Amino acid sequence: MFSLHMNKILVTGGCGYIGAHTIVDLIENGFEVISADNNSRSNENILEAVEKICGRKVKNYKVDLCIYDDTVAIFQENPDIVGIIHFAAYKSVGESVQKPLLYFENNLNSLINILKCADEFTVPNFVFSSSCTVYGNPDQIPVTEETPMKAAESAYGATKQMGEQIVTDAVNANKNNAILLRYFNPVGAHPSALMGEIPLGKPANLVPAITQTAIGKLPMMQVWGSDYPTRDGSCVRDYIHVCDIAHAHTLALHYLLQNKNKTNCDIFNLGTGDGLTVLEIIHEFEKVSGVKLNYEMGPRRPGDVVAIYANNDKARNLLGWELKYNLEEMMASAWKWELKLNADEKIFSSSNADLN
Questions:
Q1: How far is CA 138 from the centre of its chain?
Q2: Which residue among 4, 64, 78, 285 is buried most deeply as judged by most CB within 10 Å?
Q3: DSSP E strand stretches across the chain
Q4: Prior bond of 79 cis (ω within 30°)
Q5: Is 68 exposed, middle or buried (0-12, 13-18, 19+ CB in 10 A)?
Q6: Exactly one of 103, 135, 156, 325 is catalytic; which is it?
Q7: Active site annotation includes 17
Q8: Cα(66)–Cα(69) distance, rounded to whole angstroms?
Q9: What is the biggest distance separating any 2 CA atoms in the chain, rounded to whole angstroms?
């Protein structure tokens, strides 16, 4: 527990998967938190789970951050904000390939408005939710923070590359401090099973697709690509528990607030350092859950890189970041969350039936 005397942090996209888990971690480490989320791709009810876990109610401003005047109003009402964690963005790689302008408009305009407010209201600390997609298809893995960026494979990845440049230029001009956190593949759910990932529509991410297939919500799942130059033909990724990702944001803010940063814009990879194939993740889930998964091998999906995983030495050495959850725990927590969602849906359906 850090002694930070209730420093107020604005978390944009606070009702999202990583945002909500980060809010929990921030509160558990002494921060006061407010959220900004228009709930276009999230559910405000997740903050009820935050309250159950932490015993504290978090206010959400239901604001479209692409509208500057509405964004400014948050800061006018909260002049004591000392840090911003900016998650708010569209994040589906596949959708971004199909609708690039939607991604450029939403992800970049919202970021620019938040940075303008940070400058106007002299908010000194900014943490940007970036992604390993900024590396494109790297020549060598694992990637370090110095690995050269290649061309992004999707519009989503391009918005993260551009976003990093926008943040870097803004803080250099305004003399603020920023940290860019490049995460790999967040999975799993809070150990309480009170919150986890809730995909809108058919899951675009691997683990929700696995759990929804296992529970019977999906009849079958596709593995996108069987002919990649990897050990079993499927993509290689670095899967990391969402709570480990969340805690890194708390550590990043602490790092800035304690003036430990040597530069006003620093970069950290957030991954386990271990690359696993899609098929290896499926087999681990089957082992943990005892459920045989119905899947088929499909074609490659546009926007997917072949293989990527992290060198996380910098985050461990400078932020003091330590991984708490292993792969078995990632899969077990995701399955526990899916089982709870399914039980809740049955209770809800039964209650509605009683009313008819």
A1: 21
A2: 285
A3: 8-12, 32-36, 60-61, 81-86, 125-131, 177-183, 185-187, 221-224, 236-237, 239-241, 265-270, 276-277, 295-298
A4: no
A5: middle
A6: 156
A7: no
A8: 9
A9: 64
Task: Compute the chain's Rg from CA coordinates.
Answer: 20
Using CB atoms within 10 A of its CB, is residue 42 exposed (0-12), middle (13-18) or buried (19+)?
Answer: buried
Residue indicated by tokens 């790689």: 93
Structure tokens that stand for 57 in this block? 């109610």
Q: Output the pLDDT for position 67.
A: 98
With 0-12 CB in 10 A as exposed, 13-18 as middle and 19+ as buried, what is 67? middle
pLDDT of residue 346: 66
pTM of this structure: 0.94
Cα–Cα–Cα angle for 269, 94, 331, nearest 5°? 55
pLDDT in tens, 95-140: 999 999 999 999 999 999 999 999 999 999 999 999 999 999 999 9
Over the stretch 328-344, which tens digit does the pLDDT of each residue have?
999 999 999 999 999 98
| Token pair recorded at residue 187 | 């999975």
DSSP state of 130: E
Q: Is the alpha carbon torsion for 293, 298, 300, 301 positive or negative?
A: negative
14 CB-near residues (< 8 Å, 6+ apart):
20, 22, 23, 33, 34, 35, 36, 37, 47, 58, 60, 87
Q: Residue 355: what pLDDT?
A: 45
Q: What is the mean pLDDT of the chain?
A: 94
Q: Is 247 exposed, middle or buried (0-12, 13-18, 19+ CB in 10 A)?
A: buried
